[in-house]
Amino acid sequence: MFGFLNNLPQVTKNILLLNIMFYVVTYILETQGIDLGRTLGVYNALSPLFAPFQIVTHFFMHGGFLHIFFNMWLFVMLGGYLERIWGEQRFFIFYVSCAMGALILYNAFGFYDLLLLKDSLSQSISISELDSIMANSESLDKLRDIIYQSNYLGEFEYKMRELIPNLKTSNVDYVQLHNYFLLSITPMVGASGAIFGVMAAFAILFPNTEFYLYFAIPVKAKYLVGFYFIYEVYRSYEGANDGTAHLAHVGGAIVGAIFVLFWRKKDRNNFY
User: Fold this and answer.
1) Angle at Cα 19 formed by Cα 13 and Cα 25, nearest 5°?
2) Which residues contact 53 (CB under 8 A, 6 or more apart)?
C-alpha cells in the first residue's frame, strides 16, 4: 500500500489521500446519523444553504463508495501520468481550474433557473417565507423528506400545505415550488468535473491510447472520451434528474481541453 503511494507523484498522492480521508470521516459520521455531505457539499449560490467554504470542500465529498472509487481510479491512472509529464505546479493549476470550471458552469445554469423560479413564485407567495423553511434545521429535515420521498405531485402538495399553512390560500404552482426547493436543497459533491478535465486532456494528448471497456473491448481514448462527452452534453440538454451533475462533467472537460490546446499552441516545442 505504502509502496504504491510512494510511487505516485506528489500532487496526485495528496489529492488522493485527502479524498480518502474525507470519505472515511463521512462514512464514520453517517453511522452516527450525521450526513457530512449536506454540510460540505456545495449548494447553488442563491440557496440559503450556500456557504463559501463549500466551494473547496465539495471537491473531496462523494456520494458513495463506487463514486469515489471510479473517480480516484481514473484520477490516479490518468492524472498521475499527466503530472509526471507536466510537473507539480502545472498539473495542480490544471486540476483546480477544471474543478472550478465544472462548478461555475453547473452553478450558472442552476443560478439562472432559480432566478426564474423566484420571480414566478414571488407572484403567489413570499420567497423569504420559503427560504426561512430551509434556514431552520428542523423544518429543513421535514422538507427534505417531502422532496425526496413524495411519489406524486398530489402527495407533495398535501405535505407542503401541512408544512407551510399559507399555501392553503395560495395559488402557487406546485411544480415550480418543487423545482425551487429541489435546486435549493440538493448539494453537488465530488471531483468528477476535474476528472473529466483530466480525461479530456489525456484524450487530446494521447488519442490513440487504448482502454479496455469492460476489461475486454479495446477502445481508443479519443473515441471513449469523445462519446462520453457527447453523452454528458445530451444528458445536460435533456435536463436529466438522475442525481448526476452532467453539466459539471461538461464544464470540466471543456476547461481541460482549453488548457491543453492553449498550452500546446503556446509552447509546442516543450509541451508534450
Assistant:
1) 130
2) 40
Cell numbers for 151: 411519489
**What grid cell was written down for 222?**
479519443
Cβ contact 19:191 at 8 Å? yes
pLDDT at 216: 74
Choosing from 129, 159, 185, the residue where a domain stops is 185
Q: Is 61 left (phi over 0), alpha (psi -120 to 50) or beta?
A: beta
Residue 271 lies in a domain: no
Cell numbers placing 113:
433557473
Domain holding 252, by residue range, is 2-105+189-266
**Over the stretch 185-223, which tens digit does the pLDDT of each residue have?**
999 998 899 999 999 999 999 999 888 776 678 889 899
Q: Are residues 37 and 87 in the same domain?
A: yes
Q: Per the domain annotation, does 36 fall within a domain? A: yes
